[in-house]
Amino acid sequence: MNIQIRSAWNAFRQSPHAPKWLTWAAINVSIAAYFGFGLVAPASVSKTAWLPGETTHGHYQIEMDCNACHDPGRSADGPSGSDVMQDACIRCHGEQLDRAKDTHPAKKFRDPTNAERLAVLDAQNCLSCHQEHVPEQTLTMGLTLPADYCWHCHQEVADSRPSHRDMAYDSCATAGCHNYHDNRALYEKYLDDHHGQPDHLELASLPRRSTAASLSGVFRPDRPLAIDQADHPATQSVDQRVLDDWATTAHARAGVNCTHCHGGNGDTAWSEAVAMESCQQCHAGQVASFQTGKHGMRLAVGLPAMTPDQARLPMHAGQAHAQLDCNACHPGHRFDTQFAAAEACLQCHADDHSLAYRDSAHAALWQEELAGSGAVGSGVSCASCHLPRIEGETGIWVNHDQNANLRPSETMARQVCTHCHGLEYSLSALADPRSVASCFGDAPTERIESVQMAHAWFLQRQAKRDARLKKP
Prior knowledge:
Elements: H1 2-14, H2 18-40, H3 67-70, H4 84-99, H5 115-120, H6 151-154, H7 157-160, H8 188-193, H9 240-247, H10 250-253, H11 258-262, H12 276-280, H13 284-290, H14 297-300, H15 326-329, H16 337-341, H17 343-346, H18 352-355, H19 361-371, H20 382-386, E1 389-392, E2 395-398, H21 410-415, H22 423-431, H23 433-437, H24 450-470
Antiparallel strand pairs: 1-2
């Protein structure tokens, strides 16, 4: 048998078609090996070979880790194969929906009277509206439903709201009107309360941060440190400029020493790089919110840090391989929040909106504040809008999820814009693509009517009450 096999192999080798067959076989084995490795490999670029279609704008950064969405074992409630995707959505977005006072939570549809509506549109399941890997069906905000989905439940709204009678069935989500989950800046009472405001408020200022109140861990403001108290290991050479920078920071004034961030105190080895977990010791809220945004979401699932070359927006080529962790915006030992507020953003972002910032009125106000000629809180940096200051249990803190108020953009109106502008002007500017592209250097060309409509509705209700009271 061995002689026959050897004879057949020699005959094949001498055949003029042998090189072609060997090349074909090698190519196929290589393809099979690549896809086979991708199937069993940990989270890595090779995993993307198995993607059934392009991932949405919100999730493409974690597409290398299929298990981020498809692993039933990651559910806090235990494995549930049939609901694994729903579990994944709630695991990442549940807290955000709670903060937004979700206007369409699943529990809203448990009433048996909604059974017929749920048969048409299962509003209790995230995947009814948001599916992945179907780019040909995906609209803005990751929607994979026709734009008339509101109509299925609200088709009779014109009977109670005469102002809605001439509106198209797919216009509910028009800018400044309604959003499915988050209507904090759009519900009628809020709109009416801000009716009649001027475009530019007389008192225009951002709320002051209460940074100290939001910190924890090794933070000890009662034990400030001097430069001679730096506790880096004696065997570790440290540049004097580094020590000088550290000694002037809030870290030194708060008792945060070298080993708190770099290790080397006996429990851990010294590290030149500062891990995100070190920052988390004191800045837990900031780190947690950073990991829910696009800058840090890869770190949240154990993937390497995001780099600008992986972004879908235009970025400066020189920063292509910069790793987006805490030090990307707070570098060195100065941790300069003024640098982090604008220059850190502009060193990477190269889209029209970002490039227009330096010539905008907002940037002029920011420069005046930095120069001391403008009041504290009167300047508008990138962070002023994209890292909003939120009132929490411990005071005003900075939300480091830079996507939190981008979709829907009306969220920015309440959290940011209305500190300086009237609500109608804010909603109009956010809805105007030309105004957004110019970094709001151009005033909105059209005005959103929802504020006036809400005010007119309340006036109509009051008129009806007054008429009833006048009846004998």
